[in-house]
Amino acid sequence: MLAKWSKLQASRGHETHPELAHRRAQQTSRRRNERKHAATSSFPGFNELSPRSLYFEECTAANILPEPLLSRITADRRLELSHFGLGDTKAIVLSKSLALMPDIQALNLTANRLTHAGIATVVQHLSGRVELHSLNLSENEIGEAGCASMADFIFSAPNLTHLDLSQTKLVDSFESLANEIAIHPHLLSVNLTNNEIGDGGGQLLGATLAAATCTIQDLNLSWNQICHSGATAIGHALQTNRSVQHLNLSMNRFGDDGGHQIAAALLVNTTLRTMDLTRNNLTGSTAVTLSYAIEHNPKAKLYNMVLVDNPLGCTGTKALLRSVARGCRCNVRLSFYDGEDANKAATVRRVFDSSFPAAQSPYELHLHTSPYDYVIACEVVAAAVARRCELFDVSFEPATDEVDLEHHAKKHAVQQPLEFSDQVQGLVEKGSTKLFHLRRRGILRISARYVPWRIQLTNDVTPDGLRNVIKIIRDRISTREMCSMLEVATTDLFLHIRDVDLFVNGLLGSIDVVDVVARTLPCIVDGTQTLPFLLRHLSFSDQNRLMSSHGVQVLQFNPLNPTGKWTLDMCDRIHRKLAVWFSMINRDEAAESARRVAYRGNTSQRGTYANFRNEKFNGKAIELTDRFFDGLPAKGILEFDYVSTRRPEDNVENGAPTPVLLEVEVNALLQTIGAELWSEYVPQHKRYDLKRQVVLLQHALSGLYITAEHVRMLMQYFPKSIDNLRLKAVFAAHRSILDMENFEGVYEKLLPGDRKAMFSALGYMNTLNPLNVDMEYDLPMADADNRLLVRTLVDMISNDPLDLIKLDDQSIKEGLSIYSMFSIASIPTSGRLGLRYITRPNKFSRELIESRQSTFHAFLFAGRLHEKYRGVDHAEEGAGAS
Length: 882
Description:
The protein is α/β, with parallel strands linked by helices. Among the domains are: 72-188, Ribonuclease Inhibitor (Leucine-rich repeat, LRR (right-handed beta-alpha superhelix)), CATH 3.80.10.10; 197-351, Ribonuclease Inhibitor (Leucine-rich repeat, LRR (right-handed beta-alpha superhelix)), CATH 3.80.10; 363-450, no CATH class; 767-882, no CATH class. The strands form four sheets. A ten-stranded parallel β-sheet has the order 1-2-3-4-5-6-7-8-9-10, with helices on one face. Strand 8 (274-276), helix 11 (284-295) and strand 9 form a beta-alpha-beta unit. Helix 11 packs parallel to helix 12 (313-325) and helix 18 packs antiparallel against helix 19 (513-520). The protein is elongated.
């Protein structure tokens, strides 16, 4: 064809312009007559031009170079003309041939420099083509002027199923087009990406989706500057729409206002399968609402949701990952950049965290206008059901119409008092058992207090859910992001050892094993499995790396052996989880101590049965109670000593055995943790190994029982002059010592400074043997346990007046007298008291026991003392009788 065209042009090169114009006019007239005759002829097939010849003739008439465009039609009748740069003139010429081409099922005119003029002509000639199923006009310029032509075409193309108008500058004035899309009977896929339709266009499309006649299944609205009004309209429409299966709203900027409405739609929508919300400035509040929606819609078919490049923050990311871990069928793709919460903390309201429902208490929740508030109400009640908080000051104010608000003051609104019922497992009307349903119009006011969680496995996660969480983490790009996401995902998980192994094995190769273990170690509930877990996954050198990169505290913690000195950085999410762990352990042990108060004394520092001692926050002394955890600070340094009050004899009372390790077993245990006997000098490069060994000792002794003599033996493996290692070994062994009546043989091997630190950290009432109290005491009298100790020592000298309590000079100068302290009310409650207890010399064992047996109950191991020395009394009585 090109050769023919060249010869024709060469033969006509001698013609003048008037002659050429005259000849063209004759040709045009002749062709029109031929077409008219062909239209009226009984044999039109022999007279009208073929589409290819017509295209050639039209190009000749328009004086443009013809291109082999029509030859690009495929076997399945698809005409692919994308990126040809045709322009309006060639498109108009081509359109006449398109009208004659039979059975065009798909036409692609992407990126052809077309404007509304060229497009209007093309679609005009395509009108009425029942075989046309797909039309792609993307990357051209339809504009506002071309919308009417497109609307007419859609109306006249009854079988059109796929329409691509992406990047065609529709702006927001395409109401006629939106109306035709809404009523078209067969349209399945519409692509309107990158058209800057804005909020107005979003509202138009919301109306389109809300129409009962809408048949669209795949809708792409990305890059359209849809703000909250448009997204809100689309969200409302999705609540009733039953056709859309794939929705792309990425690269808009509707934020949380629109995000909440879309999440509300997911709570009831049953047709959506995939949704892309990439980069829409969605924060943690929307993530919380979305997580609730995808988890609590049993009829949902959504299997893929993309939330990449949204500032979801720690709380929002955790909520989504927790829903996935619970077995949610929806695969979530998201990204998390550490530091988002810190950067926005000053300007953004804190996001609701179901792990700490009391953090933002009290709440005023508008149930009928805010999906986020509705989710908060549901999650707070769920937290109360799970006993993670307790609810109080609950009331409901029914919604009032705007007309009524003009005539009635807000103060006259009816307040319906409510309360939480354990029996009903929900909110009820006060004084009844009638369940209160949260799906109501009105305002719910509710307050919550933190309650330490029960120590138990997280029972709502599934292995498949955890595998999906691992997949989401592995899909991220950077190691830092994966580590941060793993940290967030495991924040409130308490797992069986096999599930923790699942994380380590699943992420091996993607993240350094040290980073994986550091973040999953606090998830282990069964402390007896911690040491095997560490030895299975980390070498000794890896454990040293873990301590240096994440801190000793992370490697040291064991829920079955928590005694020790602790310093936690509240900026560190792992440390925050450890703080929650301690609140749980303390609640459990304090309740047990209160239950056993008839058998042993209240040895807590403040008389509250709590096992926290010497607490400080940012260097300031505090009392660590549940109220501290209501809004656990996001920053600051928390320091405290913790002494576990679980005793081996408690197991005897519960009917459980208390097997004591043999010496050979203790030696094997020390060999397992790599301990070596050292003299006083230890090379510098070996000292870090000693720190690791004393930390592993904490895990090795969890759930086991040893004697004081065993402790003396293992102390020899830790030089007393290096980094308080022997003191730390004593802390690690304290809970496991069966014969605490022999404990003085242990602390005698400590340096004087370490001994004083031990009594301060553990408390005298948790360590002293009442038969061996001869020592010097320096007691802060603000502590209840020290006042109890003074009272107990005074009772001892009351039972044996020849015993002596001698006050130090400073206490005497302050006017204190031990003989004025026989009444509990006369014991000072502030300042300090220094004294020395001196037992009468040459006192027989039986006399000592008889004089102090009445004070046994004040000490932690009172049951052990009563059991042991009851046998001694009987033996001495039998010897005297014989």
